[in-house]
Amino acid sequence: MNQLNNFTKGIIKENPVLVLVLGTCPTLATSTNVTSALGMGAAATVVLLCSNIVISALRKVIPDKVRIPCYIVLIAGFVTMVQMLVKAFAPALDQSLGIYLPLIVVNCIILGRAEMFANKNKVLDSAVDALGMGAGFTLALGLMATIREVFGSGTFMGIEIPVLVDNHVSILTMAPGGFFVFGLLIAIINKFSSNKPKKTEFGCAGCPSAEICNKRACGEKEEA
Amino acid sequence: MTKLIIILLSAVFINNYVLSRFLGICPFLGVSKKLNSATGMSLAVIFVMMIATAVTWPIQMYLLNPNNLGYLQTIVFILVIAALVQLVEIVLKRYIPSLHKSLGVYLPLITTNCAVLGVTILNIDEGYTFVEAMVNSLGSGLGFFLAMVMFSGVRSKLEGADIPKAFQGLPITLVAASITSLSFMGFGGVIENLFA
Asked: Lowest CB count within 10 Å: A38, A85, B8, B67, which one?
């Protein structure tokens, strides 16, 4: 039961993209079509799963003071492995993800989960948490990509949709459309999530650097 | 010379890091609330981008490529950037305390900023020479600066606006970002034709 909770919270209650608002860069950049969005989601999930398991297993070994650099090295290692696998077995995906594949290293979701969950919990819990968060990330990306691809280019995973293909709104697949669809989705979730919509702000809560900057950079606290 | 100008201008306006490449969205949305912090953050980003390129480009060309270690790019670059940011912070604190006071807060945030790692990797991918890579980093940094400052102006206008409840906070910020990015699309094709 507990494991099930761990898994589902990543998909709905603490969805990394739509509720915690982490990992916005790859979300906006790779959601122009469904295929690359799902590829991005899968790649990030694999990295997240590996890094969560290893960091959780090493949580008593890694000294607290140098934990962030250790996490970054581990994550970069797994990203390199995924990068090589994708290059070898799915070159088309490598082309469409381009620079965003190596940039999984600096995806806040992965460092954030390491910092908030994996270094405090057992290996199995961390693995389940990683799968849930990865599924949440992939679903959110897929949802956004579906909207952008179906209405923006009139196709779904490359298959043409009869009426929409002649009447597509191509701006949705470009940069402004990305911001707009993302804003709209968060607004819809705000509307239906609870009786009184809580004010979603781009929060320091989920930011892995929050501890270092003491929330000064975002203006939440006045500079001392 | 013309090529350098084209690289600089297209990095600032056409391939703007934030508004068309979607790199560095976190600071763009998080730190743009006030003009002061937006300027501080972008100056720190320009600074770190230039230094990071100056260090990573020679590493890739003279250390990794001759030894067939190109696949280590991601690990090496992120480590170099992380170490560099720490070093810059220590040096600034010791020798230029006034600059450290205004930029210091933003430096640790930059380690995990995808724009900095992005610019160093893109410089290699595009096959730029050292000078071209430096110009590209400067342009990317300036583009980031321009987007941040413009957007903090847009956001200060949003403060007083009457916004539907569901759109308050992040959603309206994203819609505003969408319109700001629309204005940058107008630059497409202008720069190349200017020098054609």
From this structure: B67
Average pLDDT in the B60-70 region?
85
Tokens standing for residue B82:
């992380």
Q: What is the DSSP letter of A195?
A: S
Interface test with B, best of A185, A218, A220, A222 (most B CBs within 10 A): A218
- Contact list in B for residue A111 (CB cut-off 8 A) is 112
Number of folded domains in chain B? 1
Q: Do the domain assignments include residue A135? A: yes
Domain range enclosing A82: 2-195
User: Domain for residue B6, yes or no?
Assistant: no
Question: Looking at residue A1, what is its pLDDT?
Answer: 56
Task: Choose the closest CB to B108 out of A24, A191, A212.
Answer: A212
Q: What is the pLDDT of residues B80-104, one digit of tens each?
A: 888 888 888 888 888 888 777 777 6
Gap between the Cα atoms of A184 and A200, Å rounded: 13
For residue B12, pLDDT over 70 is answered with yes
Looking at the structure of chain A, the number of domains it has is 1
For residue A45, give the amino acid letter.
Answer: T
Q: Could you report the per-residue pLDDT of A95-105, keeping only the tens digit for each?
A: 888 888 888 88
Question: CA–CA separation, B103 vs B47, rounded Å?
Answer: 10
How far is the alpha carbon of A74 from chain B, nearest alpha carbon, in Å? 9
Q: Establish if B92 belongs to a structural domain.
A: yes
Which B residues in the span 2-21 are in contact with A, Cβ-Cβ below 8 Å? 19-21
Full residue range of the structural domain in which residue B147 is found: 35-182
In a domain, A204, yes or no: no
Judge whether A104 lies within some domain: yes
